[in-house]
Amino acid sequence: MSQSVYAAFTSASYLLSITITVQLCLAALMFEAVLPRRSRFVLRFALCAAAIGAVSFFLYRNLMVQSVFKPRSVSLLLEGLDFVVILAMMVGMTLVCSHVSLWTAIFCSTAAYTIQNLASSLTYYCFMILEGTGTSMASPLFIPLNILGVVVVYPICAYLFGGPIRRGGLVEIEDRKMLLMFALVILIAIFFDIENKTLYTNGLALPLVLVLRLVHDIVCVTALAMQFEMLYTRSLETNVATLKRIGDDQKRNYRLVRQSINAVNARLESLRKQVSDAIADGGADAATVDRLVSATRLPGVRVKTGNEALDALLLLKGLVCEQEGVTLSSVADGGALSFMSEEDVYSLIGNAIDNALDAVTKVKDPEKHAIGLVVRRSGDLASINVENYYTGDVHMIDGLPQTTAEDPKGHGLGTRSMRDVAERYGGTVTFSTDGDIFHMNALIPIPE
Q1: For a disulfide at 115, which of 14, 27, 307, 445, Cβ 3.0-4.6 Å?
Q2: How far apart are CA 166 and CA 185, in angstroms?
């Protein structure tokens, strides 16, 4: 092979590897943006992208040189294996840059690869229509048409697939069926794509080439839909199981609190009776007995809002807030919540106070260590409002504030549980901020 031909192969390899690497990395960022990131994410991602670009360059140059001498069956296999290597590197990049399992990395990488393939397909269509040839790196339209494919396809995919993930989160994929999806993407998106692009130059009529290309794209879209259907099903299963566990835990905690309060009250009543009996028998000085009786009265034990569940909750949370140096103020008409089960009252308001307590304890000013609760009847609605000071930024996804915990796994479930309780009664829960004050407002219809 002459030096000039080899140099041409090298130049084409540079252009192709850079183009595909940029497209793949942009597609990967759709998913990396919603994954829990490792430290120094930008540096990790840049190094991985550079590694993919370097490997793709050497693979493409090797492929182009070998394609001069090898039969089509061999060059097809070699080209397909080259792309398999790049796809495997994308899986590795996701694992290096994000805290995810292997299966989730496979999910994100195959989805990103398929999206890039759809963009490349649009570029191919444009070349066929404008120049009557397949994608040509020698054409001055190569860069503009590749940019067009990204500009058109990526926003659509980001809206259809990235949007739901940003709103609902990307749950951990632990399904071994993902390996089948991985194989499907390899066989269809890689080998079918490679072979399809040679059909026109091999003499197949243009209409048939376009039809086969359309079939390829339909299969790619179907593969994406199958992947996200798997994700959606997994997300539903996870949310249902999590909410059930939260509900069961809250019911159990509520029963324990009620039992504890009843036991304390019973013990105090017994003690007061003993003291009263001692007075009647003349066995103690009246002033001393009064002091003893007064000492047996614990603040808050006799909270009376008209709702036993709310009484128990305010007692428990009041004691916790007192220990944390936080003032819990409440104006509550418990009767407005009489239509709700005790467990749901405990769950909805308990989670709201827990979140507020977690927020105010991070505020440096002790004067702002305060939580306000208002429960009242507003027409035919039960209104619940919890206010507290906070520091930092509040990020909302799908109307729910996102946890600020370093490890988000297992956190941020309380707000979902609150929404679930309110919606079960036909109500709504909204979260908002006003300066440095955070508001939780729930409106629930009161049955007639």
Answers
A1: 27
A2: 24
Q: How far apart are CA 342 and CA 340, in angstroms?
A: 6
- Asked whether residue 75 is assigned to any structural domain, the reply reads yes
For 372, phi and psi rounded to 5 degrees?
-115, 135
Residue 262 lies in a domain: no
CB 173 within 8 A of CB 234: yes
> Pairing between strand 381-389 and 396-397?
unpaired
CATH number for the domain spanning 334: value is 3.30.565.10
- According to DSSP, the residues that pair with 438 across neighbouring strands are 388, 433
Are residues 154 and 61 part of one domain? yes
Where in the sequence is the domain holding 187, given as residue range(s)?
A: 3-244
Collapsing DSSP to helix, strand or coil, 329 comes out as strand
Exposure string (b/e) for 182-199, b if CB count within 10 Å is 16 or more?
bebbbebbbbbbbbbbeb
Buried b / exposed e over 370-405, threshold 16 CB at 10 Å, is bbbbebeeeeeebbbbbbbbbeeeeeeeeebbbbbe
Q: What integer pLDDT is reported at residue 372 of this predicted model?
A: 93
The length of the chain is 448
| pLDDT value of residue 43 | 93
The number of folded domains in the chain is 2
**Shared-domain flag, residues 62 and 197:** yes
Mark whether 99 and 212 lie in a shared domain.
yes
Within-domain flag for 299:
no
Name the CA dihedral angle for 128, 130, 131, 134, rounded to a multiple of 10 degrees. -20
HSE, CB side, 13 Å, CA atoms: give it for residue 374.
Answer: 11
Residue 244 has a pLDDT of 64
* Token digits of residue 236: 């539903």
Largest CA distance in the chain: 121
88 and 222 inside one domain: yes
Residues of the chain scoring pLDDT < 70: 1-14, 59-80, 134-137, 162-189, 196-197, 199-202, 230-268, 270-271, 274-275, 278-303, 398, 402-413
For residue 396, CA distances in Å to 41, 401, 441 come to 22, 4, 15
Which helix (DSSP H) or strand (DSSP E) does residue 107 occupy? helix 102-130
Determine, yes or no, domain membership for 220. Answer: yes
pLDDT for residue 389: 93
State the virtual CA torsion across 297, 298, 301, 304 in degrees, nearest 10: 60
